[in-house]
Amino acid sequence: MEENGQIVSVGAPNGVFAVTVDEKGRLKLPASMLTYLEGFKEDRKVFITTFDESEARIYPISVWRETAKKLQEPGDDFEALDALARIADHYGKDVDVDAQGRLTLPDTLRKALGLEKDEVRMRCFQNRINILGSAEYEKRFAAAKNGLADKVKVLQRKAL
Description:
globular; 10 strands; alpha+beta
């Protein structure tokens, strides 16, 4: 949703959600994520892509348009951003969420990330929904737990 030209988050759900990608490459969004996307008032249109070939990203279409604009901005990092835009375009596709709250992951993306017939983990972050396959999720979760005591001290220093 836009407010004064800026994208505003509309109550992203907290936590990680496990869903299964079916044999047709579809996944059913958890109800709270569907409500989150519907809050953007965009007729259930999203853009699904990846930048790093390990994590899929579902963008409400207005959020993607802002992201795409930023990828085209001139500057010192234009070559890197242009390369990332090419990767996003290669794997990405506009997708409609159907009446049952399902969306179909683009074939190229699904195959590259190994998301076929997999239980994936979904998490809202920065006005988008991130998707990790089960193996990638477990790898990142194990890395997050590594050195946990020191990470907790950071929370304490920040009074969180």
